[in-house]
Every structure is written in structure tokens, then in C-alpha cells.
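FORM 7B: Structural annotation worksheet

SECTION A. Query
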Amino acid sequence: MIPVALDPSRLRIAVAGGGPASARRLAELRAAGAEPLPIPPEPAFLPPLDLLWIADLPPDRAAPLVAAAHAQHTLVNVEDQLALCDFRNVALLRRGDLLIAVSTNGQSPGLAAAVRDRIAALIGPEWAARTAALGARRRAWRAAGRTLPELARLTSALLARSGWLA
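SECTION B. Predicted structure
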């Protein structure tokens, strides 16, 4: 697996299905800033997409959607059907712009959620403001012409002084 953070404003995203899992996925994507297109379980056609989540469909109904998506080079995730997936979902912890993702490569979503919850006990809501403050400092350092190695040293020093990770 290759972990990446995608900007949903630059992507064409859809969710296919018609039950509670697809509704949950739509809500999660909207919370992440995406504007996903809902696709019925058996669409007449599949619009051009970058990413497609399929949920609430058995493999025999999901497979034609996967084939149609792949024909237009769309990456697909089919809920709890690893053999049909190009990518896996992760257990997410959001603290403003701080995003922590935990994955078991689809082996145990429950374990990923439990690890995420343990991390959430250590990284509380205050990290949203901390992340914003560090981002502002980094932008100022960049505007002053600091190099990437200098940015790393300045960030480490600021974190050490703050005691946030002590």
C-alpha cells in the first residue's frame, strides 16, 4: 500500500450503492471536503471519475461497476471485498488539518479503528489549533527564505520547547 493524502477539490469522486454503508461513505467524504456524486446501484452509465466507492452491493452486482470504472481508469474501492479494490479505506483521526490514518491493508478494520481510538486519546482536539499555529510559523519561515532542512530544525525546536509531544 502507498499512503497518500488527496485534495478532494481536485478529484471527481462518487459513491455507488443504496444502503447504510454507502450513505455513511457519502457523509464521510463530505466531512472531508469532497462533493461526491451519488450513483445508483445499477446506473445507466458511469460518469468520468477519479475515485469510486461501492457499498451495499454483492460481488455479482459490484463487478460490472468495477469493470466500467476500470475501463475509464477510475480507482475503485468495494466495501469489504478486497479482491475488487484498488485502494483500501483507513481509520481516520482528524484534528483540523492534522490527519492521522491507520491501516491494516484491509486485514482488520476493527484493529485499525482501535489503534486510531488509542491515538485519539493522546492527540486531542487541541491539536487543531497547534497544527494551524505551526502552519503559520512555517509559512513565515518559508517567506523569510528558510531552507527545507532549516524548516525541519525550526519545527523540531518549537515542538521541543512547547512540550506538546513530551
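SECTION C. Observations
Residues 90-124 form one domain. The chain has three domains: 9-87, 90-124, 126-162.

SECTION D. Sign-off
Analyst initials: ____
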